[in-house]
Amino acid sequence: KQLIENEKKYLMQTYTQPDMVLDKGEGLKVWDLEGKLYYDFIGGIAVNALGYCHPKVVEAIKNQAEKLIHCSNLYYSEPQIILAQMLVELSCGDKVFFGNSGAEVNEGAIKLAVKYFKEQNKDKHKIIYMKNSFHGRTIGTLAATGKYKYQKDYLPLLPKFKQAIFNDLNSVKEAVDDQVAAIIVEPIQGEGGINVASKEFIEGLRELCNKKVMLLIFDEIQCGLGRTGKVFAYQYYNVESDILTLAKSLGGRDTYRSFDCQRESSLLF
């Protein structure tokens, strides 16, 4: 009880939480400080894909912590290079950019799309996103998050973002103009209610991006890395994006987040 009172005293109250303080976890199970058992069916909001405290994850963290906890980007890092190679071999990407959060890598994906056309002296800077999407809560990704309850306290948002209807290709086409740089979409909307994109919708987005010279960004931060039975959800559609964003279970509770991109746009960063 005292811990909960201290939490309310010292931490900003951004979430409504039950009166329980978690102490430890194993697999699907977690225990509070009083020893009461709970089952976590959301995996730490799609982070603990291997469960809590998987022995191999714990061992890897211990081994790395004994060698090198932090290595700035001024130096090469063996684990980072190995992971980047694995992600490229598993995905449609050619290059990897690591960030600190899902919102940050989505920001990076948006920046990359805009810069891609800037380098070609093309005035293409707008981003199309879907209603009920969730791409983050930074001031940039919030503008691409299609839920008013997250946006309302920060209006007006950045002006270059345009909303379309998920699974409605005609709605997306109506939002397209010559200044659109990219379309960002979750193959399976998580925050929006586990809405699965149809094959026709994803194929149509790819064709539209090819025709109108736009980049296609798949956000698989919640649905990627084995959660659908394949490594990535986009693999069910046989459609490749230009940029793919990943986070959450990529770190298995550690700090790796990334986006992969096709070689043509990868050299800009």
Automatic annotation (TrEMBL):
InterPro entries with a match to the protein in the record: Aminotrans_3, Aminotrans_3_PPA_site, Class-III_PLP-dep_AT, PyrdxlP-dep_Trfase, PyrdxlP-dep_Trfase_major
Keywords of the record: Aminotransferase, Pyridoxal phosphate, Transferase
GO molecular function, one term: transaminase activity
UniProt cofactor(s): pyridoxal 5'-phosphate
Protein name: Aspartate aminotransferase family protein
Species this protein is from: marine sediment metagenome
